[in-house]
C-alpha cells in the first residue's frame, strides 16, 4: 500500500484522496449518493479525530479544525478532503493530521480484509492481532461504522470502485462487492436469506432501459439505482409509449410482484408507479 496518487510536490496538501470510478461515474454522482457519502466522510473524520485525541495520539480536537472538499476530474468522480487547524490555516506535513487519514484508511482496509462476520464480535485473538486500542474502539463504534459505510455507499454496480489514499502513505481500493460488508457491519443490511417465488413489494429505483417494441420486459429497473438492472414488465394499462419514453433515466416508486430465485430478484411485474423528482429524493435523504 505504498503507491500514491499525487506527485511528491503535492502529497502533503491533502488528508485523503477519494476517487470513485467505474460505469456509474463519469464526472458525476447521483445526488442522494453524494449527500450520503459527504455526510459519511465528515462523520468519519470527526469520530477518528475524537478517538485519537482521547487516546492522546494527536494534540488537537475537532473544535480546532475545519474540513474542506475539493473536486473533481472527468472520467471518474474524484475529490480531496483537507482538514486545517483554524489557528494555523494549514496542517501541511503535520503528523497529527496524517494520523487521522492513516487510521481511517487502515480501518477500512481491515474491514475489507476481515469482513463483517469476523468483526461483528471481535475475539480476544483478533484484538491481539489488531494490537491498537483506538482501532478496536472505533470498530465497536456504531456511528463510525455507519459513517464509513456511507463513504463506500456510492459504487452502485459491478466494476465500480473507490480508491482512497492518504498521500505518501496508505492507499486502498474498495470495490462494489466490498460494499455489502461495510453495510452489514454498520447494521444497515441483514444477511440475505435465499428465497424463491413471488413477493409483493414496493420499491424505489431508477429506470435505465426502455424498450417500446417489447411485449414483456419493457424496462430495466435498478433498485436504489444500484447493482444490476432487473427486467420489468408493465401491466397493459401502463404501456403508453409517450409515458414510457419519459420514464428513461427517472427515479420511480413502484408497486408490483417481484420474482426471486435463490434470493435474487429476476423479474418485476409493475402494477403501479410514480416518478420521483430529485428534490424529493434530496429532501428525504436529509431527514
Amino acid at each position: 500500500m505504498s503507491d500514491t496518487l499525487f506527485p511528491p510536490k503535492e502529497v502533503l496538501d491533502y488528508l485523503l484522496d477519494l476517487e470513485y470510478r467505474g460505469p456509474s461515474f463519469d464526472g458525476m454522482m447521483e445526488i442522494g449518493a453524494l449527500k450520503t457519502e459527504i455526510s459519511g466522510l465528515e462523520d468519519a473524520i470527526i469520530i477518528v479525530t475524537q478517538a485519537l485525541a482521547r487516546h492522546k495520539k494527536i494534540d488537537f480536537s475537532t473544535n480546532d479544525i475545519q474540513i474542506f472538499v475539493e473536486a473533481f476530474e472527468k472520467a471518474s468522480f474524484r475529490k480531496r478532503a483537507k482538514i486545517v487547524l483554524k489557528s494555523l490555516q494549514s496542517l501541511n506535513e503535520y503528523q497529527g493530521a496524517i494520523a487521522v487519514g492513516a487510521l481511517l484508511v487502515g480501518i477500512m482496509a481491515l474491514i475489507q480484509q476481515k469482513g463483517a462476520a469476523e468483526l461483528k464480535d471481535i475475539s480476544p485473538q483478533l484484538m491481539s492481532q489488531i494490537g491498537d486500542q483506538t482501532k478496536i474502539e472505533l470498530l465497536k463504534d456504531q456511528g463510525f461504522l455507519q459513517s464509513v459505510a456511507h463513504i463506500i455507499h456510492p459504487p452502485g454496480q459491478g466494476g465500480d470502485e473507490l480508491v482512497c489514499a492518504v498521500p505518501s502513505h496508505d492507499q486502498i481500493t474498495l470495490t462494489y462487492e466490498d460494499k455489502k460488508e461495510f453495510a452489514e457491519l454498520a447494521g444497515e443490511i441483514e444477511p440475505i436469506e435465499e428465497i424463491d417465488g413471488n413477493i409483493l413489494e414496493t420499491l424505489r429505483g431508477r429506470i435505465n432501459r426502455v424498450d417500446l417494441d417489447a411485449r414483456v420486459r419493457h424496462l430495466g429497473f435498478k433498485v436504489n439505482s444500484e447493482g444490476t438492472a432487473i427486467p420489468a414488465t408493465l401491466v397493459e394499462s401502463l404501456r403508453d409509449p409517450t409515458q414510457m419514453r419519459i420514464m428513461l433515466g427517472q427515479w420511480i416508486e413502484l408497486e408490483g410482484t417481484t420474482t426471486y430465485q435463490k434470493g435474487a430478484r429476476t423479474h418485476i411485474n409493475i402494477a403501479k408507479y410514480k416518478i420521483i423528482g430529485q428534490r424529493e429524493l434530496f429532501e428525504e435523504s436529509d431527514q
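The chain has a mean pLDDT of 83. Strands lie at 16-21, 65-71, 77-85, 161-165, 171-175, 197-210, 219-223, 230-234, 251-261, 264-276.
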